[in-house]
Design brief:
The protein is of the alpha+beta class. The chain folds into two domains: 2-61, no CATH class; 88-170, no CATH class. The chain is built from four helices and nine strands. It has helices spanning 2-25, 34-60, 81-84, 164-170, and strands at 66-74, 87-95, 100-102, 105-117, 120-130, 135-138, 144-145, 151-152, 157-158. The mean pLDDT is 91.
Length: 176
C-alpha cells in the first residue's frame, strides 16, 4: 500500500514535470493551471491502473497449486467508469495441494479457503466439503471427526451446481 501511494505521488510529480516541459517548449504559452491539472490526471490514472491490475498481480503471485475459485467485481456510482468496466476487488482461492480425504469417506474433502481483499488482510477458513451431497461447512468449534471418517456437529450449507468453491474443491465431481 505504501508503494502504491509513493507511485501515485511520483506520477503526479512526473505529470507536472512533463507539463512544465511542454510549457517551456511552447514558449510559456500554456495557462499555468495546466501543470496541476496534468499532475492530478496522472495521479488519477495511476490509481485507476492500480485498482484494475491488483487482481492479476495478486492472483499471479499465489503459490503453486492455489486455485482462484471465485471473484467479486466492484462497481460504484462515484467511479462511473466501473459501471461499464467493473474490476475485481475480492477473490477466494483454494489450497488444492493440501486437500485431504479419509479412506472411509472419500466424498468428504477437507481444505482451506483463502479470502483476499483489495484493502484487507488475507483470511483463512478451513472447510469441509461433502462432494456427493453438494454441501459444505466451515470448520468451527463443535465439529467432531471420528476415527472411521464420520463427521458430526457440522453446520452444513447446501450448494448449487454452479458453486465455484465446491466445484474447485471437489474437482467438478459434486452432485446437484
Amino acid at each position: 500500500m505504501f508503494l502504491e501511494l509513493l507511485a501515485t505521488i511520483l506520477a503526479g510529480v512526473g505529470g507536472a514535470g512533463v507539463m512544465m516541459l511542454v510549457n517551456k517548449i511552447t514558449g510559456s504559452r500554456l495557462p499555468r493551471w495546466f501543470t496541476p491539472v496534468a499532475a492530478g490526471l496522472a495521479m488519477i490514472g495511476v490509481t485507476i491502473s492500480n485498482e484494475y491490475s491488483w487482481y492479476s498481480r495478486t492472483a499471479g503471485s499465489l503459490p503453486e497449486g492455489m486455485v482462484v475459485a471465485e471473484t467479486v467485481e466492484n462497481k460504484a456510482f462515484f467511479r462511473p467508469w466501473t459501471l461499464a468496466f467493473p474490476y475485481v476487488d475480492r477473490f477466494v482461492a483454494v489450497d488444492t495441494p493440501n486437500l485431504r480425504t479419509h479412506e472411509g469417506h472419500p466424498g468428504l474433502v477437507l481444505g482451506d479457503l483463502y479470502f483476499y481483499g483489495r484493502w484487507s488482510s488475507i483470511h483463512k477458513l478451513p472447510v469441509l466439503a461433502d462432494c456427493p451431497g453438494s454441501r459444505r461447512a466451515a470448520l468451527a468449534d463443535g465439529i467432531e471427526f471420528h476415527a472411521d471418517g464420520r463427521v458430526t456437529g457440522a453446520d452444513w450449507v447446501a450448494s448449487t451446481a454452479d458453486d465455484a468453491v465446491l466445484t474447485t474443491i471437489c474437482g467438478g465431481d459434486h452432485a446437484t
